[in-house]
Amino acid sequence: GNGIETVYAHARQLLMKAGDTVQAGQPIGLVGATGHAYGSHLCLEVQVDGQSRDPVRYLREHGVDIKLQVASIYS
User: Fold this and answer.
1) Is 58 helix (H, G, I), strand (E, B) or coil?
2) Short-list 49, 59, 42, 56, CA closest to 7
3) Contact between 59 and 47 (Cβ < 8 Å)
4) Do the Cβ atoms of 51 and 45 come closer than 8 Å?
């Protein structure tokens, strides 16, 4: 709503559907490697009125502090 859309790519399975209400900490999908991907990961995009925003910054500004975890393939 309010011109805000979230886009998720490369997920193996989405656990939510358009219009669902999501609570903080609730899983929304399973990480995968669909499409043109070279390993399991999830791409998240936030669009406001059709304009892409930095999802980490946007969510933090709206009270949601997501933790990005990056695992090295060499560790």
Assistant:
1) helix
2) 42
3) no
4) no
Give the separation between CA 69 and CA 75, rounded to whole angstroms: 14
**pLDDT tens-digit map of 5-45:** 888 888 888 898 888 888 877 888 888 888 887 888 778 89
Q: Which helix (H) or strand (E) holds 47?
A: strand 43-48
Which neighbouring-strand residues pair with 44? 8
* Residue pair 52/32 in contact by the 8 Å Cβ criterion: no
pTM of the model: 0.65
DSSP state of 24: T
Q: Which two tokens stand for residue 43?
A: 């791409």
SS3 (DSSP) at 57 = helix
- Sign of the Cα pseudo-torsion (37, 5, 30, 66, in order): positive
Token reading at 25 = 């900490």
